[in-house]
Amino acid sequence: MGRVRFALVSKVSVLLLVALMAVVLVGCESETAESASEPGATEVTQSEIILASTTSTQDSGLFDVLIPAFGEAYPEYVAKVVAVGTGEALTMGENKDADVLLVHAKSSEEEFVAGGFGIERKDVMYNDFVIVGPEGDPSGTGDATTASEALMAITENGGVFYSRGDNSGTNKKELSLWAAAGVESPEGDWYLATGQGMGDTLKIASEKQSYTMTDRATFLNLKDALDIDVTYEGSDDLFNQYGVIVITDATNMDGAQAFSDWITSAEGQAVIVDYGIDTFGEPLFVPNAN
Amino acid sequence: MGWSIYIDALTEGIELLASGAVDVWVIIEASMAVSGTAALIALGAGVPLGVLLGIRRFAGRRFGLLIANTGMGLPPVAVGLIVAMGLSRRGPFGGLSMLYTRDAMVVAQVLIALPLVVAFTAASVAAVPRQLRLQARSLGASRFHEVLLVVREARMGVAAAVAAGFGAIISEVGAVQMVGGNIAGDTRVMTTAIVQYTRMGRYGQALSLALMLLGMIAIVNAVLVIGQTSAERYEGHR
């Protein structure tokens, strides 16, 4: 009986392997067929661009439309996105492990360029942050007039706040709001740090029925999987500016410059403003390149 | 640049950790508490199961061994995902409010360690000479005493099983990140802290913690090696 089962298992696994190989082969074939049938696509040598960006930008889904559109405009380049925290993105730039950065921590970015690590920094787009929390807003953040006041309402009314605590652009923004409220380094039972990306932090806040601050794009993308909602939004202090930086002496300087030029061009900016309208009924990012 | 990247990072990391800017002991304590508890539970449940699969002949034994051996290759991220879905507020065990707690991490790690403990134990008790058991029975030992004798003879293999399980879970990152949430001072363990510091670009702290983790795994493996060599001595003197 046991032997029969083993024989069966090995037959099934051989079949699976064969099927897998067939899929891989067919996949490769159709790819070559496609590129061959493309008119004028004779021997385009593609060079790779490493684009370091943030997890929240990736979680927003923007790259799923931005990268293919860039590939159409510049078929000679293949942009590869590495989504990390703003801190690591900047370190990647310093170590020349990336060619171009798309991040959102303006003062750190300006320091980075002033330090000679980047050639120039250009504004690309902005989105906004929102404060999210349990249904019914038990800490009453909605009555505040600034985001800093809304955060203070959480501490004063027994709420718990989950911070990214990872030195990311979002984390830096959140800390600046606490500082504006007179709290230089928030700590206590009501302030917990996840050290994770925006998506994970939102899931944790939802499970724990607590508050957190998030960029609107990531929140809208994950909304259906969460049991928390926007409790405070719309004030001037919740504005989030993105910038693009070409790295000094990057491995692929031309590609990095092409990406920077394209994303700030009318064409790139149009892709940004269209993103999100189909799914969420509103654009997630507002392009504002000069 | 070049190789100095390691030295610079390490010097910076050790300085930062020594300065107390990061409470590294809280992180180590969390790792030990979670993985230690999980290893103990895996020991309690896995050794009896392993003994059963190793010495008893019954229908489905081969299937049980197949499950245990396949389980050794369970991807921790898959375990993490399944446990996280089950414990989610929207999942079947959501009422326990257990996701993003140490308990949830223990559950995931037990599932990862258990197949290792079962398979290693089964292999080591199966290696105990059958004549020994027959002789014990002929001298009047009960079934219970026979099992005790086998476990005693295979104790080094069983210890190795537990050490292997502990080593696997303390260095695992995918599952604990998903079900623990890396919450500072609570569910943040060494592996998730390393991922976090790397993502923050703080290679120094990340590297220092990685070396400490390596040290702990070296200690666990020292136990394994001692277990193996003692077993060899036993074989040699038989």
> What is the radius of gyration of chain B computed over CA atoms, rounded to a whole number of angstroms?
21 Å
Proportion of residues in β-strands of chain A: 15-25%
Text of the CATH class of chain B: Mainly Alpha
Choose one word for the global shape of chain A.
Answer: globular
Question: In angstroms, what separates the terminal alpha carbons of chain B?
Answer: 57 Å
Query: What's the assembly state of these chains?
Result: heterodimer
List the helices and strands and how they pair.
The complex is a heterodimer of chains A (290) and B (238).
Chain A lengths: L1 H36 L9 E8 H5 L3 H11 L3 E8 L1 H9 L5 E4 L2 H9 L3 E17 L12 H10 L4 E3 L5 H12 L10 E3 L4 H10 L4 E4 H7 L5 E5 L6 E9 L5 H11 L2 H9 L2 H4 L5 E2 L3
Parallel strand pairs in A: 1-2, 1-3, 5-6
Antiparallel strand pairs in A: 3-9, 4-7, 4-8, 4-9, 4-10
Helix pairs in contact in A: 6-7
Chain B lengths: L3 H15 L5 H32 L5 H11 L4 H12 L14 H25 L3 H9 L4 H11 L1 H16 L3 H7 L9 H10 L3 H35 L1
Helix pairs in contact in B: 1-11, 2-5, 2-8, 3-5, 4-5, 4-9, 5-8, 5-9, 8-11, 10-11
Question: Explain this structure to me?
Answer:
The complex is a heterodimer of chains A (290) and B (238). Chain A has 290 residues and is of the alpha/beta class. Chain A is built from twelve helices and ten strands. Chain A has two domains: 128 residues, D-Maltodextrin-Binding Protein, domain 2; 111 residues, Periplasmic binding protein-like II (D-Maltodextrin-Binding Protein, domain 2), CATH 3.40.190.10. In chain A, the strands form two sheets. In chain A, strands 1, 2, 3, 4, 7, 8, 9 and 10 form an eight-stranded mixed β-sheet that branches. Chain A has a two-stranded parallel ribbon with strand order 5-6. The longest helix of chain A has 36 residues. Chain A is globular and about 60 Å long. By secondary structure, chain B is mostly helical. Chain B has one domain: MetI-like (MetI-like fold, Orthogonal Bundle). Helix content of chain B is 77%, strand content 0%. At the A-B interface, helix 1, helix 4 and helix 8 of A face helix 3 and helix 10 of B.
